TrEMBL record, chains A, B:
Domain Aminotransferase class V per the UniProt entry, residue ranges: 4-344
Molecular function via GO: O-phospho-L-serine:2-oxoglutarate aminotransferase activity; pyridoxal phosphate binding
Membrane spanning residue stretches: none
Species: Leyella stercorea
Name listed for the protein in its UniProt record: Phosphoserine aminotransferase
NCBIfam families, sorted: PRK05355.1, serC_1
UniProt xrefs under PANTHER family: PHOSPHOSERINE AMINOTRANSFERASE
GO biological processes: L-serine biosynthetic process; pyridoxine biosynthetic process
Main localisation: cytoplasm
Subunit organization: Homodimer.
UniProt keywords, alphabetically: Amino-acid biosynthesis, Aminotransferase, Cytoplasm, Pyridoxal phosphate, Pyridoxine biosynthesis, Serine biosynthesis, Transferase
Family the UniProt entry places it in: Belongs to the class-V pyridoxal-phosphate-dependent aminotransferase family. SerC subfamily.
Name of encoding gene: serC
Amino acid sequence: MKKYNFNAGPSILPREVIENTAKQILDFNGSGLSLAEISHRAKDFQPVVDEAVALIKELLKVPEGYSVLFLGGGASLEFCMIPYNFLIKKAGYLNTGTWAKKALKEAKLFGEAVEVASSADAGYTFYPKDYECPTDLDYLHITTNNTIYGTEIRKEPEVPVRLIGDMSSDIFSRPIDVAKYDCIYAGAQKNLAMAGVTLIIVKDDCLGKAPRQIPTMLDYRTHVEKGSMFNTPPVVPIYCALETLRWIKAQGGVEEMARRAEARAKVLYDEIDRNKLFRGTVEKDSRSLMNICFVMNDEYKDLEKPFFEYATQRGMVGIKGHRSVGGFRASCYNAMPMEGVEALVKCMQDFEKEH
Amino acid sequence: MKKYNFNAGPSILPREVIENTAKQILDFNGSGLSLAEISHRAKDFQPVVDEAVALIKELLKVPEGYSVLFLGGGASLEFCMIPYNFLIKKAGYLNTGTWAKKALKEAKLFGEAVEVASSADAGYTFYPKDYECPTDLDYLHITTNNTIYGTEIRKEPEVPVRLIGDMSSDIFSRPIDVAKYDCIYAGAQKNLAMAGVTLIIVKDDCLGKAPRQIPTMLDYRTHVEKGSMFNTPPVVPIYCALETLRWIKAQGGVEEMARRAEARAKVLYDEIDRNKLFRGTVEKDSRSLMNICFVMNDEYKDLEKPFFEYATQRGMVGIKGHRSVGGFRASCYNAMPMEGVEALVKCMQDFEKEH
């Protein structure tokens, strides 16, 4: 039976990315050696990094003056690297969910860090909009997509300060205005690659201004100067990212990814809104196109487990909602075909008919 | 032509590790999903981590009271995590080469950190032995194998303080006395796995004593409490480590790895000592069994490049010495078959006959 991978992350990758990565692990570029055992200093690997960086700059229209890095440790490590490198006097954070809150917590270890707006009181069911943003912030940190709660801001907010964006779960799903950011970071394991590499896009002239000593590995300058090769980078995850980037470009770039994300989300949200059994958990104008959260309507609460089993038997994988929200979450990253969403919708419709 | 991978890292892995990892990337446990796209919370992945941890405890005879962790970021990130977590008043470091020096540099950001002994003046050509170790150290940090200079200490030093060991390039190549260490860490990309994961073995009751606030991701307690699942771990590199650990066990454990390493090193060092063209760069009792460094004798200096080309044409890969030492370095990690060393020795002998 065909399976559809709706996992929130690590998550679905294009089949050709998976196959090409496996192939290079067996024999890298016909060298007789595995991608898993070549030196990162090998002359065949530098072109992998160079091409990946060039594709990111091209796909996201990264302006001059930004560096693109591949680091290890995951986006969670960036939560402390951001204030280490950028917090001078005062930082602002939008509290839009679990990950945003974790990022804010780390910043507080380094100086003044304030919550500029929050949707915590409403169970994170919307993305804050009409808030007052202080003008004296070193940066405003935003989590552009909230994987757990299923909210997303699909456009940079209009604020009088520079942005830092955790885009772990929606990068490459739409065009972004990189020029508004001092730094963008993203764990790879949604729209970019297998887990194990973090993408950083950082404005060079913002670095070196924080009034503290930074451990070498936590200082973005270290990695900018060495082109992500200060220490051994995660070679295979970076190669996997390159394959995904090539795929995105071949499919039509982030504009096409946005078109597909909108089309997928419309089909699924329309069904959630129509189907008597289900309802969405998020205010309509904050709905994520990546993580589509829904629950059983109160009068059908006892059908939650039966529906989960019904859908699982029909090939839907990873649709259980995060434990803090409950219900269901269908993550629809770039590699999710419309066919997968249609299969899920069909499940919902058939299940409705039976109840 | 058969190639022999003498790269210093990332480096040779057993062929079955490579093939099994590639296979799981195509289809993980027959699930229809790729290892690269499954959730780290999937019920199929927890057994991977559990088995890997259990094998490490078994192979290295890890005593009770230690935790085994898989983190991202590489051993270089540990250089700052060690003092963050363990430096209370004063730490000691053996300066045995480039990586040891880098580790000491990071410790100095956090408090008093002293060089207890050094072989820097001798170009790191020996492993320090008869030094006075202060008794008031929180820990003595040692780099058990120096990848660049080719020195190794194959037994824990007799010192009156607790040890912390960077074992990136010789872990699993011999039995170790874990009980003498508060922490052992190792980048995976030599004897364990593809690059992208760091192994940590830490004594639980040593944590939480350092007098400073530690960012969440840099606090070992975070990862101990969550069993390496605080954030998304590097799934594929961890799986690759599991495959290698299974292989080591099947081959006869670290005792057998030690026997093979000694046998390989004897064959190669004997040839270096015998062959009129070459000489070793390291004092005999400090010679590494993992990274075997040698240069052309002075009267044959101009044969360096020709020998490199000669050996490369005959399938030797990655034997160029590190730029700080020059000459040649044949890294002979666990997966290097005796056949590879014999092929290199044959190259050296045939080349000698021609000159």
